[in-house]
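tokens incoming
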């Protein structure tokens, strides 16, 4: 799929997304994000590389019971970059969280970045995943 096709005309949504200053985006914790699953909060949010997209306009693809519901309410970077609907261990048998792409090779990074372009063309950016320094410190120390 040529999602990252540079020849594609940018959409209105894309141009709006490009204008956003990331530092001004609402900060949403991983826990809060999990509620944007169409059930707890009637919106569908998908995070990619910490940037959160509102995919509610395409709820038919993301609602409960649909295959792509797995991407909702989380940072789904890992699933998207590995082209998988399930979190799988990597070749070394290590397991990772859905947001973690720290071990990605060039090919997986390219797939992930192509998805960024795809989502940026279609869906408005509404926030950034930010769990605050305390949680990050904990994660780093594990
Ligand atoms: C048999 C396997 C699959 C088929 C037949 C399939 C088919 C499709 C089709 C037809 C679309 C709509 C494309 C468009 O609107 O431009 C789509 C979108 C999408 N697919 Fe798949 N897909 C498959 C597997 C996967 C897997 C394994 C992933 C995991 C990364 C995935 C992730 C997505 C995502 C994120 C979208 C965009 C949904 C949206 O926002 O419109 N698909 N797929």
């Amino acid at each position: 799929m040529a999602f990252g096709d540079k020849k594609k005309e940018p959409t209105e949504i894309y141009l709006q997304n490009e204008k956003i200053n990331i530092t001004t985006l609402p900060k949403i914790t991983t826990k809060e994000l999990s509620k944007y699953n169409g059930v707890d909060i009637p919106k569908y949010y998908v995070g990619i590389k910490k940037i959160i997209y509102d995919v509610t306009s395409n709820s038919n693809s993301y609602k409960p019971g649909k295959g792509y519901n797995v991407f909702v309410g989380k940072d789904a970077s890992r699933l998207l970059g590995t082209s998988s609907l399930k979190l799988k261990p990597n070749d070394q048998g290590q397991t990772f969280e859905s947001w973690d792409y720290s071990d990605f090779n060039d090919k997986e990074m390219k797939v992930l970045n192509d998805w960024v372009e795809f989502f940026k063309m279609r869906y408005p950016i509404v926030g950034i995943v930010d769990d605050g320094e305390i949680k990050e410190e904990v994660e780093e120390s594990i």
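note: The CA atoms of residues 28 and 42 lie 16 Å apart.
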